[in-house]
Specification:
It contains nine helices and 20 strands. About 25% of the residues lie in helices and about 35% in strands.
Length: about 350
């Protein structure tokens, strides 16, 4: 555990959250420099929100520390209460006061910290302008769209000049079109925020487009951390692979390009010896009625478990010797007559299989 009074690197965030929450033992480390956005992802019940609540001071640490800049917020012995922490919080539900105008909703933050009405409203006008809602200052929440309400909530969270901005599924309640527009607005506003942002989300697009650094939390533990590019290239758990859209296999590789997995043999042209991960992009999987001939080095007879339409393509879940997800065109679905329960041949060129050390 870090010593009391130690500052976060560069005046940002340095935290080690260790606590028990139900059956989950949470142990999550987070560090970030000022201006950075950390995206925290993971399955439900894995410890993401518990980590966020510990940073906010709602949950006490059993061990570990939370340092923000030069201040010690929690070191396991002494702990600042939530109201003593320079934190801004934005949730999926904007929780705006229905009887207050947008201006006064945003001004509520500074007012709650002792700022007089005039200065609080001036600050609220500034923040509404920064999120593009200056013209809606007099509107009440019912007169605003869901996306506008989310932007008012963001303005309120930032109006107190927090050192740490905590976003818990901030876009999950929005419809797809509104979500895309609000995501863009949020990205623009966060670019101008010089504190640290911690974003908890289930949506990989939110994380990949908003965050500088990703942390995956499963069963209370960090299973992978890195930049979006690093995670997209080399996922290291089944959950992470699902998020980034890759087929992932743990196996033992040899110098000949053979990867022996628990499910079967995979051949690659980029051999890695020893314990390895092997990835196959769904778009690299071709499906056939009959066993294919020619160049593919990997062919398996599999059974279709699911067919899910996604725009102009379909994702086909396949079970058998080497379980796969394939991404094919709608034309392929029709021409092959792909249906759940049907047997098909799946083929993957060895050049499409990537391996890296476990």
């Amino acid at each position: 555990m870090s010593g009391a009074g130690a500052a976060a690197p560069g005046g940002g965030l340095d935290a080690r959250v260790r606590l028990s929450r139900g059956a989950i033992e949470v142990d999550v480390a987070l560090t970030a420099a000022p201006g950075q956005v950390i995206g925290v992802l993971g399955p439900n019940g894995g410890g993401k929100t518990s980590t966020l609540l510990a940073l906010a001071g709602v949950l006490a640490l059993a061990d570990g520390h939370v340092h923000v800049g030069a201040r010690v917020w929690d070191d396991g012995r002494r702990r600042l209460q939530p109201e003593q922490r320079a934190v801004g919080l934005m949730l999926a539900d904007s929780l705006l006061f229905p009887h207050l105008r947008a201006l006064d909703n945003v001004a509520f933050g500074p007012r709650s910290r002792g700022v007089d009405r005039h200065r609080a409203r001036d600050r609220a006008r500034t923040e509404l302008d920064r999120v593009g809602l200056a013209a809606h200052a007099a509107a009440r929440p019912r007169e605003l769209s869901s996306g506008q309400q989310a932007r008012v909530a963001l303005a309120r969270a930032l109006a107190t000049d927090p050192a740490l901005l905590l976003l818990d599924e901030p876009l999950s309640a929005l419809d797809p079109d509104t979500r895309a527009r609000t995501r863009s607005d949020l990205a623009t506003r966060l670019t101008a925020y010089d504190g640290v942002t911690v974003l908890v989300t289930h949506d990989p697009l939110d994380a990949l487009t908003l965050a500088d650094h990703l942390v995956f939390v499963e069963d209370g533990q960090v299973t992978q951390a890195g930049t979006p590019a690093e995670v997209l290239t080399e996922p290291r758990s089944t959950y992470v692979a699902t998020v980034v859209g890759l087929n992932l296999y743990a196996g033992q590789g040899d110098s000949h390009g053979h990867v022996v997995t628990a499910d079967g043999l995979i051949v690659t042209t980029s051999p890695t010896e020893g314990p390895v991960w092997a990835t196959i992009p769904p778009s690299a999987v071709s499906l056939h009625r009959h066993e294919p001939e020619g160049s593919p080095r990997n062919t398996w007879r599999l059974r279709i478990a699911s067919v899910t339409m996604q725009g102009q393509s379909a994702r086909v879940g396949l079970l058998g010797d080497v379980p796969l997800t394939a991404e094919v065109t709608l034309e392929s679905v029709t021409s092959l007559g792909l249906q759940v329960g049907q047997d098909v041949w799946a083929a993957v060129k060895a050049t499409e299989v990537r391996t890296y050390p476990r």
